[in-house]
Amino acid sequence: MAGMSKAQIGGILARQGILIAFALFIIGFTLANEKFLSADNVLSVVRSSAILGVMALGVTFVVISGNLDLSVGSMMSFSTIVVLDLHDKVGPAIAIPLMFAMTIALGALIGFLVGYLKLNSLIVTLGMLSAIHGLTLTYSGGKNMDIVDKQGTWFSVFGQGTALGIPVPIIMFLLVAAFLGLVLARTPFGRKVYAVGGNGTAATFSGIPRARTVFYCYVISAACVATAGLIQASRSMGSQNTVGQGLELEVLAAVILGGASLLGGSGTIFKTLIGVLILGFIQNGLLLVGLQFYVQFVVTWVIIILAVWLDIAAKRGKFWSTIA
Amino acid sequence: MQAGKLSTYLSKGAIWGFIVLELIFFSVAGEFLSITDKAFMDIDNMLLLLKQSAPIGIIAIGMTIIMINGNIDLSVGAIFALSGIILLDSMTWPIFAGLGNWVIPVSWLLALLTGITLGFINGLIVWKTGVDAFIVTLGSMLGYRGLVFMYNGENPTSHLNWTLVDFAELEFLGLHTATWFLLIVTAIIWFIMTRTVHGRNAYAIGDNREAAVNAGIRVGPHMLINFMIIGFLAALSAVVFYSESGSVNPNDGQLYELWVITAVVLGGTKLTGGAGSIISTFGGVIAIQLLRKGLGHIGADTSTVNLVIGIILIAVLILDRQLNAKGKEELKI
């Protein structure tokens, strides 16, 4: 490709470095356990990644806009508890939109604080993590939620159903990914998200509404969280208050593994999809070869650092060269 | 008085004003709502509060340096837990069997070395790879927690050494051992940050990294040392806490980073680096602990405490923004 700078080529090499590492990983696990690449296993990995994946798609918007969202885990707990509670009170047809409205309202609040008041997103969402957790506990009175009549409701379809032989969570995940992918890559709004994350001041001067764009990123993120909460609630038909605790880290890990820069301005939905799958397959592979569940934390850590290191090594000569 | 001066004064002294407000509020509210008939401002209660502030406080003091530097450390909770495990478990290792009570300083040393090593790993990665500290420590938060779980599965690691418990419960001049540790750490780090070259460099790097490099400050090694300091302090906090409790759960220390960062931000340290004060962080720690204890005193449960802490954190950010935005030209949207 003509006209490509050295840094761009380096960036592509770095990105492929991760894909190559991922491929080696897959080959290794396939050799270690022939079940690894079976259709059943692949399907089950993607299915169990759907909840994390949907959340990561939304957070991708937030990260590209140059911000962070640490509150998605406790927000997911919130939407799960709310939809389970409302299910028995008003029925699923009303419960689902109500839950979406409440979750999106929380997202809008964060969007207002970060976008319009220009507060630091790390601290705002750290505070919201705590506040929403408190809200969830207050809402549920500290008790676990359960759907009373588990057999007599169509609510289970989102988490447990299949269509054309494909689990519904996978279909929802891919639909959301396709839609958000289009929004990010093909709409004026998507271009604004990149512009705001790339250089907020320049974007403002060129007439892009920075505050509004950031605001909508958090709304999108919250809508994704609500979708994840719906899948989670429907899959388990009952839940604890802490179901989403710690998920924000895995979500961020997936987004970063996919290659979105925390400095904002770069990343795509497709890359995040890859990041989610890498995380899912690593966890699954480690379990299949009989390693402890906890080892995956350590492996994930090493892989995140390597991924970001590669990325930065490719972009060297800019910001980070100032580190002596 | 100029507007700029007034706002500086307000934001610097805000934390102490906040503490006074809290004291008044909980004393008054406690009269009507308290679940016990003891007064909130009871001297024993306040001494206990200081003691209970120590684990979070000691780490928060370290976090202040990291944040003045323009970095952040999210792995402190995991370092806390892992150091605690090493502390308690090493006392039962067969090679130390003949040591008797001399095993205590050995275990302390091992626990502190664990913290320093984990901090060293964080710092080295930040320095050598240039990866943002947020990502590095986010990763090691997962990684170190993985190590914690690998150590003993989901079982707690327990070992109660009564000599150690006696030491932890000692009172000297009316203050508990843990309180002394907090005060001494605060004093030493305050001295480092205000009276030494290392401290001055920390502010310089946080303020403008490029300028600091040009001024000949070795930014990488400097940050490495700071990460080792916070690793040490997280381990010290574990030493202080687990000497008395004697049992580490693999989930211990989770959300510590939230409490610690909240305390530091309440104390007025800027996330962008270059500004902050150890004494104000100490105030932030006391304010947080007062809030937790006060809300408990008037019968609020954990959920309310979480809710209030979150809201206060955001309110402080808004207030801080309002105070600091005055006089500066803001880009209109």
UniProtKB/TrEMBL annotation, chain A:
GO terms for molecular function: transmembrane transporter activity. It is a multi-pass membrane protein. It holds the Pfam family BPD_transp_2. The keyword Cell membrane applies. It is found in: Cell membrane. Keywords: Cell inner membrane, Cell membrane, Membrane, Transmembrane, Transmembrane helix, Transport. Its main location: membrane. It comes from the Bacteria. The chain crosses the membrane at residues 12-31, 51-72, 93-116, 122-142, 163-185, 213-231, 251-282, 294-314. One of its GO terms (cellular component) is plasma membrane. PANTHER family: ABC TRANSPORTER PERMEASE PROTEIN YPHD-RELATED, ABC TRANSPORTER PERMEASE PROTEIN YPHD-RELATED-RELATED. This is Sugar ABC transporter permease protein. It comes from Octadecabacter antarcticus 307.
UniProtKB/TrEMBL annotation, chain B:
The chain crosses the membrane at residues 14-35, 56-88, 108-127, 134-152, 172-193, 224-243, 258-291, 298-319. The keyword Iron-sulfur does not apply. The keyword Membrane applies. It comes from the Bacteria. Keywords: Cell membrane, Membrane, Transmembrane, Transmembrane helix. One of its GO terms (cellular component) is plasma membrane. It is found in: Cell membrane. This is Sugar ABC transporter permease protein. It is a multi-pass membrane protein. It comes from Octadecabacter antarcticus 307. Pfam families: BPD_transp_2. One of its GO terms (molecular function) is transmembrane transporter activity. PANTHER family: ABC TRANSPORTER PERMEASE PROTEIN YPHD-RELATED-RELATED. Its main location: membrane.
